Amino acid sequence: MSRIETHNAWVEFPIFDAKSRSLKKAFLGKAGGAIGRNPSDVVVVEALRDITLSLKEGDRIGLVGHNGAGKSTLLRLLSGIYEPTRGSAAIHGRVAPVFDLGVGMDPEISGYENIIIRGLFLGQTRKQMLDKVDEIADFTELGDYLDMPLRTYSTGMRVRLAMGVVTSIDPEILLLDEGIGAVDAEFLKKARKRLQALVARSGILVFASHSNEFLAQLCDTAMWIDHGTIRMQGEIEDVVRAYEGPDAAAHVRRTLEEMAAEEARE
Ligand SMILES: Nc1ncnc2c1ncn2[C@@H]1O[C@H](COP(=O)(O)OP(=O)(O)OP(=O)(O)O)[C@@H](O)[C@H]1O
Q: How far is CA 3 from CA 70, 162, 235, in A?
C-alpha cells in the first residue's frame, strides 16, 4: 500500500550571496516563501515550514496557492527529490514525478525514441515501453512527425508526446505539476479522459495547479499552501472559496455538476 507521511518538515534554500540590506526587515510579500536566517546566520528562503501531513491510498489532493507559495517544493519533497532540512518525510510506494513535461526528453532524437526514453525515466522497462509505443503514438496524433527529431516540434506538440507517455504508466504515487496549458482545447478534452483514468489507476495523486477547473476534474480534496505552510485542507469548493472567493468556488461547483451530468449520460 502506498503511503506518505511528513512530520514538521521544512525545506530551506540557503542563499549565500543574498544582499542583507534589503533583508533587514522580515517582510512577507504576497508571492514567495518567507526569507529568514538559519542557525549559522545564512539567509534562507523558507520554501516549506513545518509541514505535517499523511497521505494514504486513494487520496487525490489538489494544491492551490500563490506563486512561490511552495507547491512545487512540496511535490519535490513528497517525491523524495528534496530531503527535509528539518523534520522528516517517509515515502512508501513507486513515485512518478511529472513536474516538467520536458524532463527526460532529448531534442536530437525522434518522437518515437523519446517515447521510450521518457518511459524509462518514469520507471518503466524498455519492454513495457515497446509494447505500448504504437498506442501512445496514435494518441498523440503526431503522425509522420514521430520520425522527426523533437527539436522540430512546437511546444504543444511536445506536450502531446509527453502526455501520451505519462498517461500510459501505472504509478503508485502520482505527483503532477501543471504543464498542460500549451495544448489545444480539443486535445485537452481527449487528454482529460486519459488523465482521469491514470489518476484512477494510481494509489495517491497530488496535483499542483492554478486551474480550479482542472483540479475539480482530477482531485477530491484540496490543500491551500500559503507562504510555505498548510493554511487549509478540505473539500475543493471550500478551499477555493477561502483562497479565491465565491465566484471561483461557484465555478468549481459548476464543473463538478457538469462532470456528474456527463457521467450520468455515459
Ligand atoms: N532552488 C531554489 N533556490 C532558492 N529558492 C527556491 C528554490 N526553489 C524554490 N525556491 C523558493 O521557494 C519558494 C517556493 O517556491 P515553489 O516553486 O515551491 O512555489 P510554487 O507554489 O510552486 O509557485 P508557482 O505557483 O509560482 O509555481 C519561493 O519563494 C521560491 O523563490
A: 21, 26, 21
Q: CB within 6 Å of ligand 1 — which residues?
A: 13, 32-33, 45, 47, 65, 67-73
Nearest residue by C-alpha to atom 18 in ligand 1: 70
Asked if pLDDT for residue 111 goes beyond 90, the answer is yes
Backbone angles phi, psi at 173, to 5 degrees: -130, 120
CA distance 260 to 25: 50
Q: How confident is the model at residue 160 (pLDDT cuts 50, 70, 90)?
A: confident
- Rounded distance from Cα 166 to ligand 1 centre (Å): 24
- Decide: helix, strand or coil at residue 15: coil
Pick the CATH number of 3-94+171-265 from 3.40.50.300, 3.40.50.880, 3.30.70.100, 3.30.1490.20: 3.40.50.300
Confidence of residue 97 (pLDDT cuts 50, 70, 90): confident
pLDDT band for position 230 (50/70/90)?
A: very high
